[in-house]
């Protein structure tokens, strides 16, 4: 017990030591790198998964394939995939890219399934009454998609993006295994130097970053989604059921 | 192939550890999720609290949890117990909601019929509601066990031996053989566990019908 108490004090000491909060390998820099890799992967994943999800949700084709491969992807271990990709591209790719590319690809593979599922499920679950009403008002298919189905899909899409972001932030620690920066640096260097405080400090920072983003997404959800819902109930004053449902 | 035959003993050892580190927490997590999920299903406030706590727990990255747990448990960083406890927590977080929702999905008519037949509340739970909820729980269990197979490999970054150790070895030696072996074995384990749960779910269905008619 005394040892455990000592550890907690040391972790706190490491986290509050001003020396760890400055310089090119300090905590703010590593958080910055961690967020940089994560943002890159998230942007690529969004660029792939949202259009694909819209097509699948709109046409209803390819859903079984996506559901099946999402499950198979879950079984693929990220660490194994990372090293495998690195070994495959290392003879042909040079410079920093040989480390960055496998990291981003692994993170994108984790992020695509939840965003894809959220997008197509959101489009498919868009209120049929709202879609029918838009059609009755003379909206073209494109207008229905952009002005009705996508806003209705936003809550599920956002929850997919939230899941994807958390996966990315958790897994971006393995970038350090290939020698890149990020919060995984503290964990792996701490392990190599038997510096438990640094290791646990890094672990706590990753966990806090994940929790902060989780809360951030909850706030973003209520900011972006609920005005949309309120607007849609205002536009349909003839339907008291929808108003009481959201009130 | 040469590498595999000369390292066969080690590969088998790592696979056995991997199976233990995956199945033990999955089983404990399921056993804990059943009563907790039942409680969450029964009390509305309990549901919100448990689902909220489970969601927060799920956001903590696995590697971080492997490292933070020793300070709480007083274990060594290399102790496999940390992995078992961490994966038990993840499994519990995932399944507690599934069990509550599964029990909630039991048709009201079925519950009412059991009540009319004179089942006591615990009999109704064990003989009627739980068996009817089995397919929903099995679906959640499939996600949990497949995720656990790949999360275990992260422990290789700390040096705890299991199939993930083949990845770190492959990186250090710049060798494809251990890497490919490790990835393939992970996928095979996931497919086998997934298939076993599907099979168990099918076997559970006739048993459910027999108790319902007896």
Commentary on this structure:
The complex is a heterodimer of chains A (247) and B (214). Chain A is an all-alpha fold. Chain A has a single domain (2-217), classed as MetI-like (MetI-like fold, Orthogonal Bundle). Helices cover 80% and strands 0% of the residues of chain A. Chain A is built from 10 helices and no strands. In chain A, helix 2 (27-59) packs antiparallel against helix 7 and helix 5 crosses helix 7 (141-171). Mean pLDDT of chain A is 85; it is low at 1-6 and 230-247. Chain B is mainly alpha-helical and 214 residues long. Chain B has a single domain, classed as MetI-like (MetI-like fold, Orthogonal Bundle). Helix content of chain B is 85%, strand content 0%. Chain B is built from 9 helices and no strands. Chain B has helices spanning 2-6, 8-42, 44-59, 62-73, 80-104, 108-116, 121-152, 165-173, 176-213. In chain B, helix 5 crosses helix 7, helix 7 runs antiparallel to helix 9 (176-213) and helix 8 (165-173) packs antiparallel against helix 9 (176-213). At the A-B interface, helix 1, helix 3, helix 4, helix 7 and helix 8 of A face helix 3, helix 4, helix 7, helix 8 and helix 9 of B.
Rough shape of chain A? elongated
* Count of domains of chain B: 1
- Name the helix and strand elements of chain A from N-terminus to C-terminus, one letter apiece: HHHHHHHHHH
* Average pLDDT level of chain A: 85
DSSP strand (E) fraction of chain A?
Answer: under 5%
CATH topology heading of chain B: MetI-like fold
Query: What CATH first level of chain B would be assigned?
Result: Mainly Alpha
Helical proportion of chain B? over 70%
Distance between the termini of chain A: 52 Å
Report the average pLDDT across residues of chain B: 91
Distance between the terminal alpha carbons of chain B, to the nearest Å? Answer: 56 Å
Number of folding domains of chain A? 1
**Radius of gyration over C-alpha positions of chain B, nearest whole angstrom:** 20 Å
CATH architecture label name of chain B? Orthogonal Bundle
């Amino acid at each position: 017990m005394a040892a455990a108490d000592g550890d907690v004090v040391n972790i706190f000491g490491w986290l509050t030591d001003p020396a760890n909060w400055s310089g090119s390998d300090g905590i703010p820099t590593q958080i910055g790198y961690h967020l940089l890799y994560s943002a890159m992967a998230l942007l690529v994943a969004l660029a792939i998964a949202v259009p694909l999800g819209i097509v699948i949700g709109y046409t209803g084709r390819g859903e079984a394939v996506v559901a099946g491969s999402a499950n198979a992807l879950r079984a693929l271990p990220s660490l194994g995939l990372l090293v495998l990709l690195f070994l495959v591209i290392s003879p042909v790719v040079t410079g920093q890219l040989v480390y960055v590319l496998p990291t981003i690809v692994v993170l994108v593979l984790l992020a695509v399934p939840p965003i894809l599922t959220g997008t197509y499920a959101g489009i498919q679950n868009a209120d049929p009454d709202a879609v029918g009403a838009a059609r009755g008002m003379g909206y073209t298919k494109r207008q229905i998609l952009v002005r009705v189905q996508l806003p209705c899909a936003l809550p599920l899409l956002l929850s997919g993006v939230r899941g994807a972001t958390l996966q990315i932030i958790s897994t971006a620690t393995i970038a350090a295994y290939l020698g890149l920066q990020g919060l995984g640096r503290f964990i792996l260097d701490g392990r190599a130097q038997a510096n438990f405080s640094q290791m646990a400090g890094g672990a706590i920072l990753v966990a806090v970053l994940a929790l902060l983003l989780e809360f951030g997404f909850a706030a973003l959800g209520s900011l972006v989604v609920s005005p949309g819902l309120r607007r849609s109930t205002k536009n349909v004053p003839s339907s008291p059921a929808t108003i009481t449902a959201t009130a | 192939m040469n590498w595999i035959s000369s390292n066969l003993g080690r590969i088998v050892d790592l696979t056995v550890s991997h199976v233990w580190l995956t199945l033990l927490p999955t089983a404990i997590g399921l056993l804990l999720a059943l009563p907790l999920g039942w409680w969450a299903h029964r009390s509305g406030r309990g549901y919100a609290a448990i689902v909220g706590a489970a969601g927060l727990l799920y956001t903590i990255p696995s590697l971080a949890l492997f490292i933070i747990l020793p300070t709480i448990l007083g274990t060594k960083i290399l102790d496999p117990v940390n992995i078992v406890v961490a994966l038990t927590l993840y499994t519990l977080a995932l399944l507690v909601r599934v069990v509550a929702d599964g029990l909630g999905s039991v048709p009201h008519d079925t519950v009412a019929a059991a009540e009319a037949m004179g089942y006591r509340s615990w009999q109704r739970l064990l003989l009627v509601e739980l068996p009817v909820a089995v397919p929903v729980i099995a679906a959640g269990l499939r996600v949990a066990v497949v995720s656990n197979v790949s999360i275990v490999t992260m422990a290789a970054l700390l040096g705890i031996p299991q199939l993930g150790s083949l990845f770190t070895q492959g990186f250090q030696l710049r060798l494809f053989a251990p890497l490919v072996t490790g990835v393939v074995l992970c996928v095979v384990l996931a497919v086998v566990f997934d298939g076993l749960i599907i099979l168990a779910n099918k076997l559970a269905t006739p048993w459910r019908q027999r108790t319902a008619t007896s």
